[in-house]
Amino acid sequence: MHLREATPADIPLLRHWDRQPHVAASGVEDWDWAEMLSERPVWREMLIAEEDGRPVGFLQIIDPEAEDTRYWGDCGPGLRAIDIWIGELSDTGRGLGTQMMQATFARCFADNTVRAVLIDPLATNTAAHRFYRRLGFKLVGPRRFDDDDCLVFELTRAAWRQGD
Ligand SMILES: CC(C)(COP(=O)(O)OP(=O)(O)OC[C@H]1O[C@@H](n2cnc3c(N)ncnc32)[C@H](O)[C@@H]1OP(=O)(O)O)[C@@H](O)C(=O)NCCC(=O)NCCS
Fold first, then answer.
1. pLDDT for 62-85, tens place per residue?
2. φ/ψ (deg, to 5) at 58
3. By alpha-carbon position, which residue is closest to atom 25 of ligand 1?
4. Domain count for the chain
5. Which of 20-34, 62-76, 80-94 has the lowest mean pLDDT?
6. Ligand 1 mutation pick, 86, 99, 133, max ligand atoms within 8 A of CB
7. pLDDT tops 90 at residue 118
8. What is the CATH classification number for the domain harbouring 112?
């Protein structure tokens, strides 16, 4: 599993993945890839996961305190928030998401100021809840983001170390 920066050359594939029902059902908005991939704000990383050189998934890591839309509100410092999906349904359930998340934790917690990683699946996305709990995330609670009812989960640095 290798994570690399997403580039404008990935846009056709990212749009194809957006249209996959399992991705769309997870609440991924119609992201403006051309705009997002042309900006390189310090508070966001957009990454493609590759298995043996083949792109299999997408990952976004943001610093929610610095993110420009203030999606997470006044959350304070020391956090990272993640969005993740596996592009093709046939690639789900093969352990790729687990590998992507483990690589992500190492990336996030390499910064000593980061104390926890957040994730906000839709309240209806019970398969994702199970996935995050198995990775050591704990439920923070329900939260409404724009029009979406979500559950916020958190993985603290200490919980990550314990699971190592
Ligand atoms: C959630 C997701 C990233 C997990 O990645 P993955 O590679 O399928 O996960 P793994 O193979 O490492 O682990 C499998 C676990 O993932 C969970 N899972 C979530 N969605 C799944 C799906 N569509 N198919 C299979 N497993 C899924 C299950 O809990 C499964 O555990 P189980 O064996 O107890 O059922 C991936 O399934 C996905 O992209 N789903 C659609 C988009 C999404 O929901 N993203 C998260 C939004 S917050």
1. 999 999 989 999 999 999 999 999
2. -125, 150
3. 93
4. 1
5. 20-34
6. 86
7. yes
8. 3.40.630.30
Contact between 109 and 160 under an 8 Å Cβ cutoff? The reply is yes
Report in angstroms the alpha-carbon separations of 122 from 10, 35, 73, 126, 150.
26, 25, 18, 8, 4
Identify the residue whose C-alpha is closest to ligand 1 atom 37. Answer: 92
* Average pLDDT along the chain: 95
Q: What confidence score (pLDDT) does residue 164 get? A: 66
CA quadruple 100, 4, 109, 30: dihedral positive or negative?
negative
19: which 2 tokens? 């249209």
The alpha carbon of 121 and the centre of ligand 1 are apart by a number of angstroms equal to 11
Using the mean position of ligand 1's atoms as its centre, give its distance from the Cα of residue 79 in Å: 23
pLDDT score at 86: 97
The binding-site residues of ligand 1, defined as CB within 6 angstroms of any ligand atom, are 22-23, 26, 84-86, 92-98, 119, 121, 125, 127-128, 130-131
Positive or negative torsion for Cα 19, 86, 43, 78 = positive
- Domain span including residue 28: 2-163
Alpha-carbon Rg for the chain in angstroms: 15
Pure H helices in 11-156? 11-18, 21-24, 33-38, 96-109, 126-134
